[in-house]
Design a protein that fits this description.
It catalyses: ATP + protein L-histidine = ADP + protein N-phospho-L-histidine. This is histidine kinase. This protein is an alpha+beta fold. It contains 11 helices and 12 strands. Strands 2-1-5-4-3 form a 5-stranded mixed β-sheet, with helices on one face. It starts with a helix and ends in a 6-residue tail after the last strand. The model has no long low-confidence stretch (mean pLDDT 79).
Length: 461
């Protein structure tokens, strides 16, 4: 019950109303005390007027007047003369004097709270202004026990009434919250659960109908989110199906093209000058097509296997990549340099780290080779406090604007003509599997710099 929104609202409402009533209680008690004393002053004034009207009142009637007024003595000051009008024996000395004519609200509150917490019966003197200007002042002497008893009784009644009002108000608000807030929220939660169970079912998309503005805005935002997610799931499904078809086509096409490569040697030995001139272009076209098919098949896997972490020699990986790419650069115009300290080890999956470095180096080599000018690709590395940094620096022409805008997007981030852009996408995916990332730090006519950041430990980079 207390864990629900309506239950907590019920408790909080009761507490807050009671707190408000307590804040009202203090001035209410002070006002009750002032009214009580003022009433005693009025009664004493009436009794004194009766005596002034007839000086021959006997002592018994005088006692009855004092008892009715609830006082021991009555003093009137009229025409600058102080006159003891009614009097009776005082059982004990007077404890204090309270002048109601000049008392401010804080004084009245302080006196009232003091009287509430002071037990026993005391004698006090009270001074006030007579009603209807019947003199300069009126002074009475009275006991405090009846006053304190009346104040306590009044306070108890106020607290009981406050509790009843608090509970009644809380129940009304509880019902209102359940009708106007809890029920619509439960409806939203129900739509969310239904949609989560079958996101492809459009019937699970919420239809906004809340009367409360904030809830309706939440329903509209949820409807938009569900609609977009449903479309995205359908698109993902279609892309998955398309990817499966492309993978099959790429697999078969790769086999066909690989077979075609076997015949290129015979074509190159042909005596026909035209055939000998066109043969290298045919070989290059077939090689690029095979490379694209292999890249498509690699990227089209459902997911890369999780990396198997171990401390591996980065120097050996860099030298291996440099040697492989040097052999691939048949013209010899692109120099591949591995400048990594021999003792530097990193915590990574050796095969996946090799693929990351190889993809970046191959992209750089191919970019330089496409210019027809000599150049250099350099692999360097350093160790920082929280990560290993591997840099691939080339002297190529830099990446075009389109490639920079779609740097790690498959089939869109290619920097050279005929490139697929899969190399960077695969490298980024593998780096993220290590908790790191691939960054392009610089590009331009003077060359391009890529960084591979691999975090130390097992936290995210």
């Amino acid at each position: 019950m207390l864990n629900t929104l309506s239950g907590r609202f019920l408790v909080l409402t009761t507490v807050f109303v009671m707190l408000a009533e307590v804040l009202i209680f203090v001035p209410s008690i002070s006002r009750f005390r002032l009214d009580y004393l003022s009433d005693r002053l009025e009664r004493a004034q009436l009794a004194s007027l009766a005596l002034l009207a007839d000086d021959m009142l006997d002592s018994e009637l005088e006692k009855e007047l004092l008892a009715n007024a609830g006082v021991f003595n009555v003093v009137l000051r009229r025409d600058e003369m102080r006159q003891l009008v009614l009097s009776s024996p005082i059982p004990q000395p007077i404890e204090g004097t309270f002048d109601l004519r000049m008392a401010g609200p804080f004084t009245l509150i302080s006196d009232a709270m003091t009287r509430m917490v002071t037990p026993g019966n005391r004698i006090i003197r009270v001074i006030g202004a007579p009603v209807r200007d019947a003199g300069l002042l009126i002074e009475i002497t009275m006991e405090t026990a009846p006053l304190r008893s009346a104040m306590i009784d009044y306070g108890v009644r106020i607290l009981i009434l406050s509790a009843v009002i608090s509970v009644f108000t809380a129940l009304l608000l509880f019902m209102a919250v359940r009708v106007f807030l809890v029920r619509p929220i439960k409806g939203v939660v129900g739509y969310m659960q239904r949609y989560a169970a079958a996101p492809e079912d459009a019937r699970g998309i919420i239809q906004p109908n809340a009367g409360v503005t904030e809830l309706r805005e939440a329903e509209e935002a949820l409807m938009k989110l569900q609609t977009e997610l449903t479309h995205a799931l359908k698109q993902k499904e279609r892309l998955a199906q398309l990817g499966g078809a492309v993978a099959k086509v790429s697999h078969d096409l790769r086999n066909i093209l690989t077979s075609a490569q076997l015949f290129t040697d015979r074509i190159e030995t042909s005596e026909d000058p035209l055939v000998r001139r066109l043969a290298p272009k045919l070989v290059n076209s077939i090689t690029r097509a095979v490379s694209l098919c292999e890249g498509t098949l690699a990227f089209g896997r459902a997911e890369e296997p999780a990396p198997t972490f171990a401390f591996v020699s980065l120097h050996e990986i860099a030298c291996d990549v440099a040697e492989s790419e040097t052999l691939a650069a048949s013209g010899g115009e692109v120099e591949i340099v591995a400048s990594v300290p021999a003792g530097l080890t990193v915590r990574a999956d050796q095969e996946q780290l090799y693929r990351i470095v190889m993809n970046l180096v191959r992209n750089a080599r191919q970019a330089i080779a496409a210019t027809g000018k000599p150049g250099q690709v350099k692999i360097t590395a350093s160790e920082e406090d929280d990560a290993w940094i591997i840099r691939i620096t080339d002297t190529g022409p830099g990446l075009p604007k389109k490639a920079q805008d779609n740097l790690f997007t498959p089939f869109q981030g290619g920097a050279r003509k005929g490139g697929s852009g899969l190399g960077l996408a695969i490298a980024q995916e593998l780096a993220r599997g290590h908790g790191g990332a691939v960054y392009m730090r610089q590009t331009g006519p003077e060359g391009t710099v890529f960084e591979i950041c691999l975090p130390k430990g097992d936290g995210a980079f």
